[in-house]
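Run log // design_07
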């Protein structure tokens, strides 16, 4: 099962996604709680980034997640996991998209980025028991951005669209309240 959790900044989407992953992992298989993996995609560049990562670590503390740092090439996380039943939480698509678009000397096109990410997501969906993916809402602020940022926002929009089609459930978190879309 794949669940896409979307929301704006500070909406509570990360907390909701973590609780969803923990709940899904409790579904016992042969009376054993399945492994839980947290795929962290954020690259840390400054104090604000370190603080954000620390806040997320504190949110997950005691929940039994095994963290895999995977800022690009999300499919590569599979080789870092044990086989068998597992619940995977990917946090988050917006960081992964930015990393994929801008981490090389020459930025990738939005189509290349979308294809790479969706290919990796499909592999993860096929090889996990439960897969929870967190993403940000885009196109909601009404601000006109420079060409590079606009390209990134369009890539996010295309990726979110494809993720929603792949997902069994789509949940938007608004002010801490989950709203089931699909």
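design_07 sequence
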């Amino acid at each position: 099962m794949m669940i896409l959790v979307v929301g704006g900044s500070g909406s509570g989407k990360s907390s909701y996604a973590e609780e969803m992953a923990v709940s899904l992992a409790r579904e016992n298989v042969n009376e054993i709680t399945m492994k839980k993996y947290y795929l962290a995609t954020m690259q840390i560049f400054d104090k604000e980034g370190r603080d954000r990562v620390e806040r997320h670590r504190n949110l997950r503390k005691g929940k039994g997640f095994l963290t895999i740092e995977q800022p690009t090439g999300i499919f590569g996380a599979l080789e870092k996991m044990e086989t068998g039943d597992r619940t995977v939480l990917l946090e988050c698509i917006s960081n992964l998209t930015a990393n994929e678009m801008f981490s090389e000397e020459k930025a990738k096109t939005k189509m290349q980025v979308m294809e790479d990410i969706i290919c990796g997501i499909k592999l993860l969906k096929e090889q996990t028991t439960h897969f929870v993916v967190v993403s940000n809402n885009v196109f909601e602020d009404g601000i006109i951005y420079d060409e590079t940022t606009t390209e990134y926002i369009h890539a996010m929009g295309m990726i979110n669209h494809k993720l929603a089609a792949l997902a069994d459930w789509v949940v938007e978190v608004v002010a801490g309240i989950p709203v089931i879309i699909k």
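The mean pLDDT is 89.
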